[in-house]
Design brief:
The chain contains 31 helices and 25 strands. With about 800 residues, it is of the alpha+beta class. The protein binds a DNA duplex (14 and 10 nucleotides) through strand 15, strand 17, helix 17 and helix 20. InterPro entries: BRCT_dom, BRCT_dom_sf, DisA/LigA_HHH, DNA_ligase, DNA_ligase_AS, DNA_ligase_CS, DNAligase_adenylation, DNAligase_N.
DNA sequence: CTCCCTCGAGTTCT
DNA sequence: CTCGAGGGAG
């Protein structure tokens, strides 16, 4: 045969095999016997082996897998893979009425948002597998990635190619130049059972459930192993299309995907329904059919069918508002409470935990279940020795649902006479200990709080260890290799008392600590190899500690573990105030002037830095660590230092937002107020009770002094602010925009990003505070509301024009 | 004052 | 993932 003939033969074989494969794996209707398929497959394999130039990226021979990878590479999703919200509460299987009520509520919310009725919903089962993104360029599968954290996932292209149900090439004369398909990889129940039987016969470990089997199979670095596992796939969404028309509805997308050769769930399992009644009927019918389905599902999904309506609803943080998961009631099991013990958290929170007789539920063996807090234990009246119903809440976290009272161990009532039949429980109701189980300090429960806390602070070993653990965490100082176990030991043996001590650790310290820890735990005596492993570990750890010495300011702030200050608040502080020095000096009112920081968080910050121990620990830490990105306060801070704003943040009794504004107009500044006497205050045009409260407040020397300090700090900050206002766009700065309808070229997110970059804010709904409404095609109620309120209305062109008018 | 949303904190198992 | 609490909008 000539080269051309060979190429033609290879091409023909590929086409034939792809078609047979599709018939077999997707349509479940093979037209040729397996032997025939195998014969053609081997012919193509041989041909490609002998003539490597004939290999293609879409050849069915790729389905057998290739060389093992050293590791999966990371892939950034260009369209984030979001998770679905769940607006429904857990309930019993048979609680139709409550379920229906919740569906009505959900449907009503959507109708209100869209100002339309009835709403058409596309439905589908919620597969219990792994979400995957598939990228096709010019019709050829070029990349497959796991969901990961939604932003970045792992590159599993080789493994995905071995899944026969996934087309390697779209059979179209003119495929889209770009297509990103989302779907779920899973293992059918029958394939799972077969796999486990094989594993058992081979003496390999079996998988707890099909989901774990699918995950374990897909995450093989050796794709040849993946190829031997029978994985299936169902497509359920399109994330990107270029070079083809994007269907206008979800149902349309699904039909198109099916035409393109993707397996999608059978049509009768994904009806388009109307309103709450349609959703309810769908839910109940799928629940009925659940056991007979060939794959595991953990609920159903409802999606607003119209893509225009989807765009209008948009997103909240990382979940679309137009799609929602409705989970089935979780599987439940009975087990025995062997003990109730308490854990002490980083902030001293005392959490009761039920130690359970191990029980297999929802795919794993559960031995512990949190009881959250004292009230929760008492409400459920869980006691030692009780038989309880447990389940995995959201199919993840074990939870005690209720006690089976009939099975509570009893004994005859004490003091009962011969005639009384009285019995009493062997164990009394649960009581939270009055002293910390770790350090013995008093346990305090603030009025109105659900959580009791150990008052020991950092003198409590549990809190100290966990403070250090928090400090070292990935999103904080990111010290790799410093796990819980070693931190506990470092604290226990006295190598580390506070976070600064980490930076003083030597190689010897670490090796000594490890040796002692191993001895304490009866780990086998040292070998030469173990010694090498240990010193490698210690070196890596020292390197990781050294690498953490120039953190971003926000990370350092988060790492300090200040109550109520998490990742997001830490970032706000770093962005607005810029330097640790300023943050350490700032009074509560300054914190409270920042966005999303209110009185409680502000006070918590001020308290932290006012505490001498914390200041000392911070000073010690700063011998070794320096934030790498300190800068002057943000230019935006200037507006927040407005006299009226600061007055309102001082938490002066009776001085409301409105009164603060009135007061601000009558004084020249905070300095003046700080000097005013009661008789001068009486001249202010404010209600008498406000003036009195203000005067009383100023009578406290500490308050007056705090006000003076705030005034001085304000002046100082204002003079240090960058003078240029280059970031602020005059037409956008401080203005609120609302987007509605579909813009001709900009996506919703792109428009939002542009407005925010120019200093504007984008809100979800129109109110009298809205400055501009940007309306596109099919704009709905928001446009009407804007017209009603007389809010300025822009189209995309005028928005762009406004953006163009920069500082000229 | 009352929603509604976001953020913080705690948690399990592999 | 879920709960509770804090913050802000209406």
């Amino acid at each position: 045969m000539t080269t051309n003939d060979l190429a033609a033969r290879a091409h023909a074989l590929r086409q034939q095999l792809t078609r047979y494969g599709h018939e077999y794996y997707v349509l479940d209707a093979p037209s040729v016997p397996d032997a025939e398929y195998d014969r053609l497959f081997r012919e193509l394999q041989t041909l490609e082996q002998q003539h490597p130039q004939l290999k293609t990226a879409d050849s069915p021979t790729l389905r057998v897998g290739g060389m093992p990878l050293p590791e999966f590479s990371q892939i950034t999703h260009s369209v984030p893979m979001l998770s679905l919200g769940n607006a429904f509460s857990d309930m019993q299987q048979d609680d139709f009425a409550r379920r229906h009520a919740e569906l009505l509520q959900f449907d009503e919310r959507i109708r209100r948002e869209l100002a339309e009725s009835p709403i058409r919903y596309a439905t589908e089962p919620k597969f219990d597998g792994l979400a995957i993104s598939l990228l096709y360029r010019d019709g050829v599968l070029v990349q497959a990635a796991t969901r990961g954290d939604g932003i970045t996932g792992e590159n599993v292209t080789e493994n995905i190619r071995t899944i026969h149900a996934i087309p390697l090439k779209l059979e179209l004369a003119h495929p889209p130049t770009l297509l990103e398909v989302r779907g779920e990889v899973l293992m059918l129940k029958r394939d799972f059972e077969r796999l486990n039987a094989e594993q058992l016969a081979r003496g390999d470990k079996t998988f707890a459930n099909p989901r774990n089997a699918a995950a374990g199979s897909l995450r093989q670095l050796d794709s040849r192993i993946t190829a031997q596992r029978r994985l299936s796939f169902f497509a359920y969404a399109i994330a990107q299309v270029e070079g083809a028309d994007w269907p206008l509805s979800h149902a349309g997308e699904m039909d198109w995907l099916q035409q393109l050769g993707f397996p999608v769930v059978a049509q009768d399992l994904r009806p388009v329904v109307e309103g709450a009644a349609g959703l309810a009927a769908y839910y109940e019918s799928v629940l009925q059919r659940r056991a007979t389905l060939p794959f595991e599902i953990d609920g159903v999904v409802y999606k607003v069918d119209s893509r225009a309506q989807q765009e209008e609803l948009g997103f909240v943080s990382r979940a679309p508002r137009w799609a929602i998961a409705h989970k089935f009631p979780a599987e439940e099991a009975l087990t025995l409470v062997e003990a109730i013990e308490e854990q002490v958290g980083r902030t001293g929170a005392i959490t009761p935990v039920a130690r359970l007789q191990p029980v297999f539920v929802g795919g794993v063996t559960v031995t512990n279940a949190t009881l959250h807090n004292e009230d929760e234990v008492l409400r459920k009246d869980v006691r030692v020795g009780d038989t309880v119903i447990v389940r995995r809440a959201g199919d993840v976290i074990p939870e005690v649902v209720s006690v089976v009272l009939e099975r509570r161990p009893m004994r005859p009532a004490a003091g009962g006479d011969l005639f009384s039949q009285g019995e009493e429980a062997q164990y009394p109701p649960y009581r939270l200990p009055s002293h910390c189980p770790v350090c013995g300090s008093h346990v305090v429960r603030e009025a109105g709080e659900a959580i009791a806390r150990c008052s020991g602070g950092l003198s409590c070993k549990a809190q100290r260890s966990q403070a250090i653990q928090h400090f070292a965490g990935r999103r904080m100082m990111d010290i790799d290799g410093l796990g819980e176990r070693y931190i506990d030991k470092l604290v226990e043996y006295g190598y580390v008392h506070g976070v600064a001590d980490l930076y003083r650790l030597t190689l010897d310290d670490l090796l000594q600590m490890k040796r002692r820890a191993d001895e304490d735990e009866g780990v086998t005596p040292e070998t030469v190899k173990a010694g090498k492993v240990a010193s490698k570990w210690a070196e890596n750890l020292l390197q990781a500690i050294a690498a953490s010495r120039q953190p971003a300011l926000a990370r350092l702030l988060f790492a300090l573990g200040i109550r109520h200050v998490g990742e997001s608040t830490a970032k706000t502080l770093a962005d607005w105030l810029g330097s640790l020095a300023l943050i350490r000096r700032a009074p509560a009112a300054l914190f409270a002037a920042l966005p999303d920081i209110g009185g409680v968080v502000a006070q918590s910050l001020a308290d932290f830095f006012a505490e001498a121990n914390n200041e000392a620990a911070l000073d010690a830490l700063l011998h070794y660590v320096a934030p790498a990105d300190e800068h002057p306060p943000s230019a935006k801070l200037g507006e927040q230092l407005d006299t009226a704003v600061l007055l309102a943040r001082l938490a002066i009794p009776r001085l409301t937002e409105v009164r603060s504004q009135q007061l601000a107009t009558q004084i020249s500044g905070l300095e003046q107020l700080a000097r005013m006497e009661r008789r001068q205050l009486l001249l202010l045009q404010l209600p008498a009770e406000v003036v009195n409260a203000l005067a009383d407040w100023l009578d406290e020397a500490a308050n007056r002094q705090a006000l003076q300090q705030l005034a001085a700090l304000r002046t100082e900050i204002l003079s240090s602010l960058p003078q240029d206002t280059l970031t602020a766009h005059p037409l956008f700065d401080g203005k609120t925009f609302v987007l509605t309808g579909t813009l001709p070229t900009l996506s919703r997110d792109a428009a939002k990003a542009l407005i925010e970059a120019a200093g504007g804010k984008v809100a979800g709904s129109v109110s009298k505070k809205t400055h501009f409404v940007v309306a596109g095609a099919d704009a709905g109620s928001k446009l009407a509301k804007a017209q009603e309120l007389g809010v300025a209305i822009l189209d995309e062109a005028s928005l762009q024009a406004m953006l163009q008018q920069t500082a000229d």
